[in-house]
Structure formats: C-alpha cells, structure tokens
Amino acid sequence: MTAYHDIFIHPGDPEETLLADLAEVCGTRLRRIRVEDVDYSADIGGTALELELDHDYEDDKGVPFERYRAVLTVRDFGGDKDRERLTAEDLFHRLAALQRYWLVLVFDLQKVIDRSAPLGHDLHP
C-alpha cells in the first residue's frame, strides 16, 4: 500500500461550505465521482485531490482520526513525495487560514506533520 499525505477535517459539513472552501484554497472545483470511498476529486497540476466526506479510520498513533469527519488525500501522480508534501502543506495552511476547521495533516496515517484549530479553540474537535 502506497503512503500519501492526508488532511483530516472537522467539521465536514455542511458539504457545500466545505466544497466551496476547498475550491477556494485549491483553485479549482472538486467534482463528484463516488468511486470506492472517494466522493469528490480534482487534479491540480499533476496532483490528485480525493475527498472522502466520511471515513472509517480509527484513532491510532495518538491521532484522534474518529473526531474528524472528512479526509482530503493529496497524491502526486509522479510519486514525488517532496512535491506532494509541499502541496499538502500549502493546502493545509490555506484551509487553516480560513479559521473554520479543526485540521490535522498526516503522512502515511502515522506521522503527524501539523495541526490547526479555529481561533480560540483546542486543537481537537
């Protein structure tokens, strides 16, 4: 199984607000696909974005995955993990700047890279 960068997001609803915010920070609209667990996707210059509005990840490695409703997977088509990380970090910081979401950026569902919370809130929802 290949490792990717994921941004866990809470709340993930209303769905329309999350999609509008993601379109703003990604510079493109995510389109509905419903393939396996993925609900929406986009291609941003050689990087796939895949949004799951609900996920089945359980708390692990000290990360309370169950507290986050949605997950955005960032996957570089060429397998360039440095470029993938930079893209994921950029999107994470853009989402964090909106001050609407609790976020955690992880690699391979094991390594926490960054966390963010709306202004005046604890880092966990």
Short description:
The protein contains two helices and seven strands, in the order βαββββαββ.
Provide structural commentary.
- There is one protein chain.
- With 125 residues, the protein is an alpha+beta fold.
- Helix content is 23%, strand content 34%.
- Strands 2-3-4-5-1-6-7 form a 7-stranded antiparallel β-sheet.
- The chain is globular and about 35 Å long.
- It starts with a strand and ends in a 9-residue tail after the last strand.
- The mean pLDDT is 93.
List keywords for this structure.
single chain; 125 residues; alpha+beta; seven-stranded antiparallel β-sheet; 7 strands; 23% helix; 34% strand
* Number of helical elements: 2
Low-confidence runs of at least 5 consecutive residues: none
The number of strands is 7
Fraction in beta strands: 25-35%
Radius of gyration: 13 Å
Helix content: 10-25%
One letter per element, helices H and strands E, the order comes to EHEEEEHEE
Beginning-to-end CA distance, first to last residue: 29 Å
* Average pLDDT score: 93
Shape: globular
Look at the helices and sheets and give the structural class.
Answer: alpha+beta
Strand order of the largest sheet: 2-3-4-5-1-6-7
- Tell me the major beta sheet: 7 strands, antiparallel
